[in-house]
Q: What sequence folds into this?
C-alpha cells in the first residue's frame, strides 16, 4: 500500500462501496467515513479510532432527499433548519430508520445526520451512492484533524485511504441540535450558534453535556476529556505564584496580555471565525515532545466562541499543580 494511502474521489467511492473506511475532508474537520448501512464497515471505524461503541457516529448525506433514507418521523423543524443552514456545519438528531444499524447509533433510537458543504465530501457521497457514517479521523480523544497530514500522522497504517481536500475552513466539529424532544436542544456548540437556531425555530435549549462512561451518549463529542493533545494543555487563568515550566508555549487570542509572550495567535484582530479555523492546527503544531505545557488564552463565550470554549474545556487539564 502507498504510505500514506493518498486516494482520489473515485478510488474513495469504490473503497467505500467495498466496505472499507476512508478519511475524507469536510468543512468542519476530516472524517473517517464508512458505509452507514454496513455494520462491518462501522466496526472498522471504531477499531481504527480505538473509539468506544457507546459514542455514536454522525451519518453524512449529500442531498436533502437522502434524509428520508436514514431518518423517519422527520419534523418540520428539521426542514426549516436544513433550508437555513444545510449544506453546512450542523448535525440534526432525529428518529432513526431501522436500516441504520444500532452500532452506528450506540443502540439509541435516534440518528445524527449532517449534509456537509465541502464539495469533495459531497462528491464522494454522491459517487459512492451511500450515506456515510463519519466521526473525526483521529484516534479517540486526540485532537481532531484539519488537514490530510494530521490524519496521516495518526491513522495512515490503519485505514484504506485518505482524500486530501485541503485545510478545513470551519475547523471545529459541527453543531449538534436534537429535534427528538419538545424543545430543539443544542447538544454540542459549533459554527451554527444557538442564536442562529433560535432565529429559525423561535426557541432553543442548551444542554451542558456530562459524560457517563460506558453508557450510550446522546450525541458524539460528549466525553468530559476529549480533543486532547499529548502535551498537557491548560485553558484559563494561571494561578498567582505558579511557576511555569521552562518549555511552556502560549496560544494567544486578540491583544490579551499573557504570562509569557504569544507563541501563536488565533486571531490578532479577535475574529472568532478565524480563531475557530486555526485552533486545532495550532494544537497539532505545538504538540511536540520538547514542549512541557500549552497555555491557551481565555476566549469570549459568545457565538462560535462557545464552540472553542467547549473543545478547550475538554482538552484542558483541570488544574496546574504546584
A:
Amino acid at each position: 500500500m502507498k504510505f500514506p494511502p493518498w486516494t482520489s474521489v473515485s478510488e474513495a467511492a469504490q473503497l467505500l462501496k467495498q466496505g472499507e473506511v476512508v478519511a475524507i475532508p469536510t468543512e468542519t474537520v476530516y472524517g473517517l467515513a464508512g458505509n452507514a448501512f454496513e455494520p462491518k464497515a462501522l466496526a472498522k471505524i471504531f477499531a481504527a479510532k480505538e473509539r468506544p461503541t457507546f459514542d455514536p457516529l454522525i451519518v453524512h448525506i449529500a442531498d436533502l432527499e437522502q434524509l428520508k433514507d436514514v431518518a423517519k418521523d422527520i419534523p418540520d423543524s428539521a426542514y426549516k433548519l436544513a433550508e437555513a443552514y444545510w449544506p453546512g456545519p450542523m448535525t440534526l438528531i432525529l428518529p432513526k430508520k431501522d436500516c441504520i444499524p444500532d452500532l452506528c447509533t450506540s443502540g439509541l433510537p435516534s440518528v445524527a445526520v449532517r449534509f456537509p458543504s465541502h464539495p469533495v465530501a459531497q462528491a464522494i457521497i454522491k459517487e459512492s451512492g451511500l450515506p456515510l457514517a463519519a466521526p473525526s479521523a483521529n484516534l479517540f480523544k486526540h485532537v481532531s484533524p484539519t488537514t490530510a497530514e494530521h490524519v496521516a500522522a495518526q491513522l495512515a497504517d490503519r485505514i484504506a485511504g485518505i482524500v486530501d481536500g485541503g485545510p478545513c475552513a470551519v475547523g471545529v466539529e459541527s453543531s449538534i441540535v436534537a429535534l427528538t424532544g419538545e424543545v430543539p436542544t443544542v447538544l454540542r456548540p459549533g459554527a451554527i450558534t444557538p442564536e442562529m437556531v433560535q432565529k429559525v425555530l423561535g426557541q432553543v435549549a442548551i444542554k451542558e453535556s456530562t459524560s457517563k462512561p460506558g453508557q450510550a451518549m446522546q450525541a458524539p463529542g460528549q466525553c468530559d476529556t476529549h480533543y486532547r493533545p499529548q502535551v498537557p494543555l491548560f485553558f484559563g487563568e494561571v494561578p498567582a505564584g505558579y511557576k511555569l515550566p521552562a518549555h511552556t508555549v502560549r496560544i494567544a487570542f486578540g491583544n490579551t496580555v499573557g504570562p509569557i509572550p504569544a507563541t501563536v495567535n488565533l486571531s490578532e484582530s479577535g475574529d472568532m471565525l478565524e480563531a475557530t479555523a486555526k485552533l486545532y492546527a495550532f494544537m497539532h503544531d505545538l504538540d511536540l515532545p520538547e514542549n512541557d505545557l500549552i497555555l491557551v488564552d481565555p476566549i469570549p463565550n459568545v457565538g462560535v466562541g462557545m464552540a472553542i470554549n467547549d473543545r478547550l474545556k475538554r482538552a484542558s487539564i483541570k488544574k496546574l499543580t504546584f
